[in-house]
């Protein structure tokens, strides 16, 4: 029987299942259906059970592997070693993970440990004799489709490219055990610091309201936050705003920040420079408020309001408040 | 004293906007000027600041086509002492796993206390080469650094790792691999003196055989992945431009959001 498709179940900092894993699981289920192969989830962590249970809403079978070391140490390579050992024993053919920081750390280490290929940042996955992975190249100018040559491989999938859908009936959760020493050196966690007022993460947000230099300062970002809250979204930023110290780097979108694909991207006082554009241009809907009609963003937004954001945004907030329901 | 090796990749300049694939579905490297991958410049800047503080030197390590030597000069002009470039015709069209194996093999012959890589590459990288190299070399792996504090006496390094809710402070013994981000600080421009000095610095070019990797383990012929095809994404619809004064513009904006079902 052909090897199974495995899903790496990632845990959020609070131990729950990361949302990206529900999307990855949905994609994996579709591949399993198209290929007639088995699909299975694996959650590895100090306390994996809650996340494993959540993952079982999406997959017929999930195994949870308790690895206490992940509580005290940076998890990436520990999880990779355990997963590599499970793979060598149980022989699945494909492993799907999220394309966020944890998934990348895992995929890179796993690829090297197993000698398997890796296809990264998938924007779609289908089955044709193996996973066929669509990726966005050159900042969205081109879509490529790639495949593995050797009958096995690792795929990382971007957030928000698959709509998560639970399975018709929930799957079973069971424990996994694997022996063996952790050979790679451990990296100790000295302390975990929660930053006061840390903004909602942008990678998985369905709505992002982003501010640029035109927002003018930290006070202007209150307006961005207010609109984000009114739309139930997260706050993003350009590098200009990050460099000015108005907002944290974790919110930066673009070439050296994060690549996002929300349903709505609303840009306030952002010119739309190429290094920013590569991070957001696959958003489903792009709306911009900019006082310069010649700003590059006016060329690729779906809707642009030419005007002063300090006038337009309060009016939009009033309009949203006036809406019924 | 700190010996730091930095993994740098020459990539097409994003700002040029002219990147394209050749008929073989590989990046057409003639089409656009190459630059040092932006995240690798942050790594290099961090390395230069660390050797300024602790003493020591910086070695650039890269796998690229032979023209990559020119791109490495920019890093030498910024202040790195030397470059090691692995370049071999068999490596054309190779996959990420080949890159990982080649870089790991190359690094076995380079002496370093700290190995720095970028968070990802702008030409389609997925941030997987760093963790791959660390796994093959058995190095402690510290990712997404916003701050790097080595203690050369104690032979340890502390990293502030960006987390979803703030940051983690993580620590490991040296030698270790640290993945670098823009949060480490703006890279310097090469000075005129630096540019002059770079002319006489050495970029050692090595073949696959020189680094002791078999063509069975790396290269285009044994690539683990292949590009099947490429297509232009569907063009976005034409932009709707609203020029009305704020209240009327706001109405249209919200109506548009409702049309798109986001409110
Ligand atoms: C290697 C490299 C990597 C980079 N990586 C990134 C990255 O990851 N992300 C990123 O964002 N940038 C990145 N950049 C920077 C990028 O090139 C731009 O400089 C940056 O995106 C500009 O930010 P901005 O749009 O906020 O500012 P500007 O380009 O200054 O634009 C401000 C806009 O606000 C408008 N405006 C001003 N006041 C108002 C007002 N009151 N009402 C309405 N509109 C107003 C102006 O008309 C203008 O269009 C990178 C650059 C380099 C070289
Ligand atoms: N060909 C290469 N030569 C040297 N370093 C590389 C190469 N490819 C990737 N790297 C390093 O690995 C990091 C992550 O790359 P990637 O996995 O391609 O996103 C880069 O920022 C570089 O530091």
Largest interface: A-B, 100 and 93 residues
The pLDDT mean of chain A sits at 96
Alpha-beta classification of chain B: alpha/beta
How many strand elements of chain B? 13
What does the oligomeric state look like here?
heterodimer
Bound molecules: flavin-adenine dinucleotide, adenosine monophosphate
Terminal residue distance of chain A = 54 Å
- Report low-confidence residues of chain B grouped into runs of 5 or more: none
Side-by-side strand order of the widest sheet of chain B: 9-8-7-10-6-1-4-5-11
**Strand segment tally of chain A:** 15
The shape of chain B, in one word, is globular
Radius of gyration of chain A: 21 Å
The amount of helix of chain A comes to: 25-40%
How much of the sequence lies in strands of chain A comes to 25-35%
Q: What strand line-up does the widest sheet of chain A have?
A: 7-6-5-8-4-1-2-3-9
Give the count of helical stretches of chain B.
Answer: 6
Sketch the topology of chain A as an H/E string, one letter per element. Answer: EHEHEHHEHEEEEEEEHEHEHEHEH
Largest sheet of chain B: 9 strands, mixed
Write a structural description.
- The complex is a heterodimer of chains A (325) and B (263).
- The N and C termini of chain A lie far apart (54 Å).
- Chain A has ten helices and 15 strands.
- Chain A has helices at residues 19-35, 49-55, 69-72, 76-90, 101-114, 218-230, 239-243, 274-280, 297-300, 309-322, and strands spanning 5-9, 39-45, 61-66, 94-98, 117-127, 131-137, 142-148, 153-157, 172-175, 188-194, 207-211, 234-237, 264-268, 285-290, 303-306.
- Chain B has 263 residues and is an alpha/beta fold.
- Chain B is 27% helix and 29% strand.
- Chain B is built from six helices and 13 strands.
- In chain B, β4, α2 and β5 (82-86) form a beta-alpha-beta unit.
- The longest helix of chain B has 17 residues, at 38-54.
- Chain B is globular.
- The model of chain B has no long low-confidence stretch (mean pLDDT 95).
- Chains A and B meet through α4, α5, β5, β6 and β7 of A and α1, α3, α4, β7 and β8 of B.
- β7 of chain A pairs antiparallel with β12 (225-231) of chain B, so a sheet runs across the interface.
- The structure holds flavin-adenine dinucleotide and adenosine monophosphate.
- Flavin-adenine dinucleotide binds next to α7, α8, β14 and α10 of chain A.
């Amino acid at each position: 029987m052909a090897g199974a498709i495995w899903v790496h179940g990632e845990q959020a900092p609070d131990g729950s299942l990361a949302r990206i894993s529900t999307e990855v699981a949905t994609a994996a289920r579709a591949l399993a259906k198209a290929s007639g192969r088995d699909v299975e989830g694996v959650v590895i962590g100090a306390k994996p059970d809650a996340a494993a249970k959540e993952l079982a809403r999406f997959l017929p079978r999930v195994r949870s592997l308790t690895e206490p070391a992940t509580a005290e140490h940076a998890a990436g390579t520990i999880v990779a070693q355990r997963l590599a050992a499970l793979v060598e024993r149980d022989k699945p053919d494909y492993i799907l993970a999220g394309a966020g920081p944890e998934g990348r750390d895992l995929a890179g280490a796993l690829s090297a440990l197993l000698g398997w290929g890796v296809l990264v940042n998938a924007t779609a996955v289908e089955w044709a004799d193996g996973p066929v992975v669509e990726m966005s190249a050159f900042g969205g100018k081109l879509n490529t489709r790639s495949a593995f040559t050797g009958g096995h491989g690792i795929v990382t999938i971007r957030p928000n490219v698959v709509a998560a859908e639970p399975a018709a009936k929930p799957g079973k959760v069971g424990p996994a055990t694997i022996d063996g020493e952790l050979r790679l050196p451990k990296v100790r966690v000295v302390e975990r610091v929660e930053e006061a007022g840390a903004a909602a993460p942008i990678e998985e947000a369905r709505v992002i309201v982003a501010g640029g230099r035109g927002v003018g300062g930290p006070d202007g970002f209150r307006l961005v936050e207010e609109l984000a809250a009114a739309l139930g979204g997260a706050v993003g930023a350009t590098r200009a705003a990050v460099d000015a110290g108005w907002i944290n780097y974790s919110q930066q979108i673009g070439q050296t920040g994060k690549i996002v694909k929300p349903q709505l991207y609303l840009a306030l006082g952002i010119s739309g420079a190429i290094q920013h554009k590569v991070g957001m241009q696959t958003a489903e809907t792009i709306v911009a408020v900019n006082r310069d009609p010649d700003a590059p963003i006016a060329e690729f937004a779906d809707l642009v309001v030419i005007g002063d954001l300090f006038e337009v945004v309060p009016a939009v907030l009033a309009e949203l408040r006036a809406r019924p329901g | 004293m700190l010996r730091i090796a930095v993994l740098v990749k020459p990539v097409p300049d994003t700002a040029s906007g002219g990147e394209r694939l050749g008929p073989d579905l590989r990046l057409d490297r003639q089409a656009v000027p190459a630059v040092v991958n932006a995240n690798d410049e942050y790594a290099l800047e961090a390395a230069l600041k660390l050797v300024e503080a602790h003493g020591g030197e910086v070695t650039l390590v890269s796998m690229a086509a032979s023209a990559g030597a020119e791109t490495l000069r920019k890093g030498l002009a910024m202040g790195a002492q030397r470059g090691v470039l692995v370049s071999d015709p068999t490596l054309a069209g190779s996959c990420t796993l080949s890159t990982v194996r080649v870089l790991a093999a190359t690094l076995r012959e380079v002496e370093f206390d700290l190995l720095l890589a970028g968070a990802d590459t702008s030409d389609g990288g997925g941030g997987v080469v760093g963790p791959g190299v660390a796994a093959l070399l058995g190095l402690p792996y510290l990712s997404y650094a916003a701050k790097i504090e080595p203690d050369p006496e104690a032979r340890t390094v502390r990293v502030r790792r960006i987390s979803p809710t703030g940051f983690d402070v993580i620590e490991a013994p040296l030698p270790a691999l640290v993945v670098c981000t823009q949060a480490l600080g703006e890279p310097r421009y090469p000075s005129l003196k630096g540019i002059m000095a770079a002319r006489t610095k050495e970029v050692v070019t090595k073949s696959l055989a020189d680094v002791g990797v078999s063509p069975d383990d790396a290269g285009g012929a044994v690539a683990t992945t292949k590009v099947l095809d490429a297509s232009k994404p569907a063009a976005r619809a034409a932009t709707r431009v609203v020029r009305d004064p704020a209240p009327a513009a706001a109405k249209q904006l919200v109506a548009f959001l409702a049309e798109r079902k986001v409110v």
